[in-house]
Structure of ATP-binding protein:
Amino acid sequence: GGVAEDARRYLGDRRLDDWGEEAFRRAGPHGALRRLLSRWSEENHRPIVLLLDEVDSLVGDTLISLLRQIRAGYPDRPHGFPQTVLLCGVRDVRDYRIHYSDDQGNNQIITGGSAFNIKSKSLRLGNFSHGDVATLYGQHTEETGQPFDGGVIDYVFEQTSGQPWLVNALANEACFEMKAGRDRTRPITLTMMEQARERLIERRDTHLDQLADKLKEPRVHRVIRGLLSDDTGFGMDSPSEDDQLYVRDLGLIRTRPQIAIANPIYREVIPRTLTWIAQTRIPQETTWYVMEDKRLDLPELLNAFQQFFRENSEIWIEQFDYKEAGPQLLMQAFLQRIVNGGGRIDREYGLGRRRTDLLIQWPLDQWPLDQGPLDQGPLDQEPPDGAQGFHGPVQRAVIELKILRKSLEATLEEGLAQTADYMDRVGTDEGYLVIFDRAPNKPWEEKCFARDEQHEEHRIGVWGM
């Protein structure tokens, strides 16, 4: 039905409606597509190229039927079957894992490529270059007259690493969804693009929602867990080469110059997705930690988290899909619950770093907290006059998370140096180090502490738990 409808709409070819009904009567549901495509190819004086999009959304017997009909028609090309059939999706056909029931009712699993032998080539749409992003956005300017301020292209490329869907989604959000961006006399500013990024992450459009589903797959889990927990072990099997290639082909990671999450937006989305339930259920409010000078009281926040972690960590971590990164994820969920009231968390984590670096950015001149965070408000909501947001005064603070793997003294020495280095890189004098002790039999009285430490010219607050 879909092929016939598209042929009628886009090619003006109405013959497929009648042919489709006849094919279904003669060949049944598991042969109708092949019969229709054969008739179309025979009646057409040019070879047919057929593109089937989102083919990996099909499951079970439906997908098996499709692939078998394509394989059966393959020898008849080009006069009795389409010359080329492109299967478009987020994964290679060789990675399809198809569940079906055989004639005896037994559940079977077969793989796409090996079982059907229909693949000739596998192509992946690569990321845009910086020049590609500039050209794409320039086309919008040519058509509408609406320019992009300096720095916007650089910001988009930095945040997306050129991932095509993200590049387009950010522009669509800024230029068509936000009220200010729909005014073509106004340029798209860096502030607007930053707001577009936050809205995109919060709303979890289809692409980002599918990413969340992929994180549940065992093959993806085996690769991503090491990046989130900053370790390669944790007593579990290492990912295979096929696992890593699969996750790379999904676009979740890059492997050069070293393995890492593919881009900053994914680096933000992944922990927020994995902890979304925790974020919504942790009984904390932003206003509890905002001082009279509008700064966040981060020492008080860390005291509260230490008590929360002591009372609730076992329950919450057990609920996480990625338990090996449980302490880091729970800390990020707690922070996100608070900072999402108007600020932002930038994250740095990766395989072998043995730490998670968090940069808290909290604008001191922003949307009033009693009216809700701007990035979660209605799309047509605009900031109050004069509010500078992230382009005004901003509180910046570093929180570094480490797992206690060596002695406390050695972990402190390493962690303080790393925290101070990160403070220097981001240009802040406010820094904190959180050390998680995962020894199961050690009493909490020995794990929990809070004190200030000095490293060179930096004063750093340290919390153990």
Q: What stands out?
A: The CA atoms of residues 307 and 465 lie 9 Å apart. Residues 277-376+390-464 form one domain. The chain has a mean pLDDT of 87. The longest strand covers residues 394-403.
